[in-house]
Amino acid sequence: MKKLSARRRHPLAALVVLLLALACTGGLYAVFAPADQAQADETAQSLTIEEGKKLYAVGCASCHGTGGQGTSDGPSLVGVGAAAVDFQVGTGRMPAATSQGPQVPEKKNIYSQAEIDQLAAYIASLGAGPSVPTEEQYGPEGADIAKGGELFRTNCAQCHNFTGKGGALTHGKYAPSLEGASPKHIYEAMQTGPQNMPSFPDTTLSEKNKKDIIAYLDAVNSEKTESPGGLELGGLGPVSEGLFGWIFGLGGLIAVAVWVAARTAKAKKS
Question: What is the reported pTM?
Answer without folding.
Answer: 0.72
